[in-house]
Amino acid sequence: MLQKVLVANRGEIAVRVLRACGELGVRTATVYSDVDRSALHVRYADEAYHIGPAPAKDSYLRIDKIIDVAQKCGADAIHPGYGFLAENPEFARACQEAGFIFIGPPPEAISAAGDKLAARRLACKAGVPVIPGTYEEMRDDELLAEAERLGYPLFVKALAGGGGKGMRLVHTSEELRSALASAHREAESAFGNGALYLEKVIQGARHVEFQILADMHGHMIHLGERECSIQRRHQKMVEEAPSIAVDKGVRDRMGKAAIKVAQAAGYVNTGTIEFLLDQEKKFYFLEMNTRVQVEHPVTELVTGIDIVKEQLRIASGRKLRYKQGDVQFKGHAIECRISAEDPFNNFLPSIGRITALSEPTGPGVRVESGLYEGFEVSLYYDPLIAKVIVWGETRGEAILRMRRALSEYRIVGVKTTIPFHQRLLDHTNFIAGQIDTTFVEERFSLVEKEAEHAEVAALAAALLSYQKRQKAIAMIPSRKVERESPWKRAGRWEAMQR
User: Fold this and answer.
1) Distance in angstroms between the alpha carbons of the first and the last residue of the chain
2) Per-residue confidence at 453, pLDDT binned at 50, 70, 90?
3) CA 326, CA 329: separation in Å to the nearest integer?
4) CA distances (Å), 105 to each of 158, 218, 292, 468, in order?
5) CA dist., res. 49 & res. 7, Å (int)
6) DSSP states of 316-374
7) Cα(14)–Cα(1) distance, integer angstroms
8) How confident is the model at residue 187 (pLDDT cuts 50, 70, 90)?
9) CA gap 158, 457 in Å, rounded
10) Are 15 and 40 contacting, i.e. CB atoms less than 8 angstroms apart?
11) How far apart are CA 360 and CA 406, in angstroms?
12) Which pLDDT tens digit goes with each residue over 296-324?
């Protein structure tokens, strides 16, 4: 087994990896920026090393600094978590060249899957259905001509993108011209690569992804699917396992297709193959993520397999402990991503100090976060601050359990997306499983919740005003207020009943 792992990340995912290492008896080290000096992952690690100022480009994205820390602390492996350098093939290569085990796929596999067009070509070669679109890097005039052939509506996507950045939905050629210009700028700013490609819109589609595990000995399995259709601006907000839209036949076909893509990429360790599933149960390859996913806990809860521990075992050179037939699915799991954003103010980021914190507990409830009372939420990093994951024997029980868990969750000091999730869990369409990737932006609104808040506030104000008037009357000396005994009233009521 590995002796010492450097966790090159922060927040809840760093804490998650550190815990897995601790349970396997592996010593740990981590890194931190100026603003993370007292962060929870720093407290959990056996050792912690400062790597620079708050901006990620000067700290968590500095390959040279992370390699230097790994050498200083005597680590034999580096875990990148997700985000930051997790899907950077140059970082994976730098780790290997410096003599460290990179806990993730080989740099060649990251390159093959990270290039969206290369991944589309790879899936086609493997015989897996791919969303119609472009397969080669093109100039804007070529993209305009190709759009006419494909037909609208279309997505403009960043070649090196992710998280919805550089992505635009267009319905006409006029929209496409302006979308290309703005998407180029955004992609260049976010990824240092402004290249774009086109993808046909699959109307009413669900986002369904498959978790992959692959060892160094040629063994590969999938751990079933996750439903990730609840999205806002192409960012996932809620995930479930299994998907209510996937039966055993569809699961078998999609799982085999996912493994074909991963095998074609020469994949090792953990990863995710993402698909769109249309209303007729036809699926299309979307992309591949070469890292552990934010939503991996829902898969862990329904399979009983600890994905992060498996990452560590695979990186040690061990064979997978499971065959495909060993993977069984039990119950239903739901994850809500809790972000420091104000859902009643267009999800504006919220910063500040956590002045009070009470996390939900009880049967079937799991919380992953980097929070504690006194923690400072800043604007420097992603607003995701915690995840609530629940398990139930059925989807209905999981929904009820999540409602209970969210009602117990208290985060004071910043605005959070908890009210959004509470409203979503009450929505008839969500309860019925009638969702797709456009659900949040086209068929869901927080307006009704705002109206409820306004009504409650009005009633509270009226009650307070009444109480103040009654108190003022009681304090007037010249006026005697007759106060009838409640026992007297009760006795009169009993007499009337006789």
Assistant:
1) 82
2) low
3) 10
4) 23, 13, 11, 67
5) 11
6) TTPPPS--GGG----SEEEEEEEESEEGGGTTEE--EE--EEE---STTEEEEE---TT
7) 20
8) confident
9) 45
10) yes
11) 7
12) 999 999 999 999 999 999 999 999 999 99
Task: Output the CA torsion sign for 128, 223, 431, 404.
Answer: negative
Give all domains of the chain, ordered by start, each with its CATH number.
4-103 (3.40.50.20), 132-200 (3.30.1490.20), 206-448 (3.30.470.20), 450-498 (no CATH)
Q: Which helix (H) or strand (E) holds 397?
A: helix 395-408
Place of tokens 């504690």: 372
Alpha-carbon distance of 279 to 433, in angstroms, equals 13
| 476 pLDDT tier (thresholds 50, 70, 90) | low
**Sheet of strand 235-241, all strands in order from the earlier edge strand to the far edge:** 283-289, 269-277, 206-214, 220-232, 235-241, 332-339, 384-392, 365-369
The active-site residue, picked from 291, 313, 337, 366, is 291
Q: 298 near 238, Cβ under 8 Å?
A: no
Alpha-carbon distance 101 to 71, whole Å? Answer: 12
What stretches of 77-148 adopt beta strand conformation (E)?
A: 77-79, 101-102
How, if at all, do strands 356-358 and 352-353 pair? unpaired
Whether 291 is a known active-site residue: answer: yes
Residue 493 makes CB contacts below 8 A (sequence gap 6+) with: none
* Rounded Cα–Cα distance for residues 206 and 214 (Å): 26
- Rounded to whole angstroms, the Cα distance separating 92 from 444 reads 41
Q: What predicted TM-score, i.e. pTM, was given to this entire model?
A: 0.87
Q: Which two tokens stand for residue 441?
A: 């932006």
Distance CA 80, CA 317 (A): 18
Composition of the chain by helix, strand, coil, percent to 5: 40, 25, 35
Q: DSSP secondary-structure letter at 133?
A: B
Give the 3-state secondary structure of residue 460: helix
Q: How far apart are CA 483 and CA 272, in angstroms?
A: 71
Residue 484 has pLDDT above 90, yes or no: no
